[in-house]
Sequence to fold (217 residues):
Amino acid sequence: MSLAEITARMHKAEQAAGREVGSTRLIAVSKVQPNERVAAVLQQGHRLFGENKVQEAAGKWPDFREEFGDIEVHLIGPLQTNKARQAMQLFDAIHSVDRPKLANTLARLAQEMGQCPEVFIQINTGEETQKAGVLPKDADAFIQECRNLDLPVQGLMCIPPVEEEPSLHFALLAKIAERNGLTGLSMGMSSDFERAIALGATHVRVGSAIFGARDYG
Ligand SMILES: *Cc1c(COP(=O)(O)O)cnc(C)c1O
Fold:
């Protein structure tokens, strides 16, 4: 599907939800995609991308930034503390802050570097043991902890369980954000971004619908 088609569907979903058209940001998730496909989307003028691995992002975005100028890249995958410094140099936002050790490391590096990417706190809304994220019951305390560290917390992020209706998870994420006075909601992927927009997503993370299926071979 083309970038224009995705954008049109986003606008329609915003309109249907009574939201301002163009108020949701589209993160084009370029992980694993061949560089030609990414370059094609850059050539269409898109400037906001998502990656889930620090190493992979480090291998492509410095070159793309040199060629295409200002590009925003967001980290949407898990972050190990030993890669935090590199992540802070590469990314404009980190959507996967989910534990005190990482929050403390980011805060210390932010002091040292005098800058910090936007922070989204990942919530494990489905309480899945294999999935990253703070449990819903621990969310309020962790958000406060991050604020006490002076991290620039923009909002929350979730990845709903594959087998469940995502809207329930989007609604839960929105509720936790609202009671904590947070406006950013990173939720919705290729198969459910319209439902996420209906529930207030400010950032949707769309990969395969823009670039085609990922080839992990
Ligand atoms: C890969 C990925 C996406 C994009 O998934 P698609 O189904 O290809 O749109 C979104 N969010 C996260 C966290 C991802 O890892």
